[in-house]
Amino acid sequence: MKLSDLFIKGKTLVSFEIFPPKQSVTLESIFKTTEGLQTLNPDFTSITYGAGGSASDRTIETADKIKNTYGVEALAHLTCINSHKDDIDLMLNQLQAHNIENILAMRGDYPINKNNNKGTENTYQYAKDLIAHIKSNHDFCIAAAAYPEGHPECPDLNTDLFHLKEKVNSGTDFLITQMFFDNAILYDFLDRIKQVNITIPVSAGIMPLLNTKQVGRIKGLCGATIPKPLQNIIEKYEHSPLDFEKAGIEYACSQITDLVANQVDGIHLYTMNKLEQSKTIIQQTNLR
């Protein structure tokens, strides 16, 4: 099923993001986590894609397991940076052969410690180009990433909104936001996209802070604002890991409860492959 058909029903969708393990780790580890998450009856599960197309076979295998073994719709991530156009089409054809109907199309990041100067003639340089290609040549429902606080590489919010509009006009069916920790930021973002006539569904990306290491990574990854209430939690429990995790879960739950009350289109939980913590969040928010 194409996920765009689910959004039409008008309820708040619930979805998870997982990532396949490193090549040195067996896929059985993620399958155990995946099986546990699917018992929570999500509307779909997204599977990340290796930088520059690395480990793409693991994305396919995991998506296949979710869709064809557990019967849950799979949203396969696909990035285009540093990937040859022919490799992109090969990946798309393989996904289609496994009955995967939904793609999250992104530019992606360059692989670490690899030559990033492969040339641009046979690659898609931006997500909008990848989206346009998929829409014109394949039959997928296409999701794209949105940044409520603006993409880190964009000089200002208006420029970011311009590029988001380009992605939508290229054929995006719905959006999934980057993580945010202040719901007011999302509500402001939703108002801004309406002003430029972006009317497709938006699923709100929620990442629970479970340990102090995440804080630095998140700031480096997307520059998400840490509001005062969350900063207080970080400072209060930075030397107490169990209390930090509990407080982080409670904070994520409070975000979700407010978002659902305000009738957002979807809640997309960045699980970090944490099964028990994800279960707790879903149960405490009565999402399932």
Automatic annotation (TrEMBL):
Q: Which family does it belong to?
A: Belongs to the methylenetetrahydrofolate reductase family.
- Name the keywords, alphabetized: Amino-acid biosynthesis, FAD, Flavoprotein, Methionine biosynthesis, NAD, Oxidoreductase
| InterPro entries tied to this protein | FAD-linked_oxidoreductase-like, Mehydrof_redctse-like, MTHF_reductase_bac
Q: What are the EC numbers?
A: 1.5.1.54
Name the CDD domains on file.
Answer: MTHFR
Pathway recorded for this protein: Amino-acid biosynthesis; L-methionine biosynthesis via de novo pathway; One-carbon metabolism; tetrahydrofolate interconversion
Cofactor entry = FAD
Protein name according to UniProt: Methylenetetrahydrofolate reductase
List GO terms (cellular component aspect).
Answer: cytosol
User: Per its UniProt record, what SUPFAM superfamilies does this chain match?
Assistant: FAD-linked oxidoreductase (SSF51730)
Q: What class of enzyme is it?
A: oxidoreductase
Catalytic activity annotated for this protein? (6S)-5-methyl-5,6,7,8-tetrahydrofolate + NAD(+) = (6R)-5,10-methylene-5,6,7,8-tetrahydrofolate + NADH + H(+)
Question: Please, which domain of life does this record's source organism belong to?
Answer: Bacteria
Q: Name one Pfam family in it.
A: MTHFR
